[in-house]
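Long-time lurker. I teach an intro course on protein structure, and each term I like to show students one example going from raw sequence to a predicted 3D structure in token notation. This year I'd like something fresh instead of my usual example. Would anyone be willing to generate the tokens for the chain below so I can use it in lecture? Attribution to the forum is fine with me.
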Amino acid sequence: MSLDYIVPRKNGKYSFGITVPKAKRAKFGKREFWVTLGTKDRKEAIVKAAALLDHYMKLFRADEISDSTPLTMPLIQQTSERLGIQYQTPEAIEAASLQGYVAMMSRGIEALEKIKNPDIAEVAALGGAVEVPAMNMLQVFERYVELTPGKFLNLDKRAQDKKKTRYKRAALDFVDAMGEIDVVAMTAKQAFEFAGKIAARVAEGKIALETNRPCEPT
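-- Reply from a regular --
Happy to contribute to a lecture. Here you go:
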């Protein structure tokens, strides 16, 4: 990392400074940001400054969002990550205690203080304005395969297909037993209901327990 971002002060401690790109100055309302690193140790200052540099570069690289931009969950998740906050759903905010609410909002308030003119995605991310979309079990399976390529990298094509088929069969068994319910919001009661239905199907010989596959009709 360039040491141009680290400046020693008269008291011996270091500060981090970064210039706001001209195209972003109206949004942030500043020409530059300064953050006290709180240390006289140069190596420690470099480590702290690297994290700050990554944070501010993410803020500055953000695409322009217009007021007509659709507020999708992927956009809100990307915006939350860029702001350095954890997105909270409307339900989580409503259910939080006063202390929990303050803890949730504190990071968001810090992020908002840096932005003079936040866009609609930033406001939505900070305020928990977007519902998490429903996902049925087959969508969860597809997302699992997408996010865990490492589980299949060391397998040949035939072995990959066999492994994916096993997981997909379990997902199909769930849908067959429970329907296309939203598994993101699934309750403990629904989970116990599913376990009971699967146990009944095993007892009836409809599912072979050792293979987790439907039994062949006789």
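Some talking points for your students: The two ends are 69 Å apart (CA to CA). The longest helix spans residues 157-178.
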